[in-house]
Write a structure and sequence with these properties.
The chain is mainly α and about 60 residues long. The chain contains 4 helices and no strands.
């Protein structure tokens, strides 16, 4: 797997975050889970995670 990320990864990760928040079972999507794990290993994705930066103010 490449060591960088793409624009597609930047769109996929927030959708996976929402799917997990809603309790969606992602076990049938091993490739997507591998991509997510690779992205979440990168500093940029970890630093931008909602649990790190907090929710936007209204």
């Amino acid at each position: 797997m490449p060591t960088g990320s793409s624009g597609a990864d930047s769109c996929l990760i927030p959708q996976l975050y929402n799917a997990e928040c809603w309790g969606m079972d992602l076990s049938n999507f091993p490739k997507i889970r591998r991509v997510a794990a690779a992205c979440n290993a990168l500093d940029a994705f970890r630093d931008a995670h909602p649990d790190v930066i907090g929710a936007p103010t209204a």
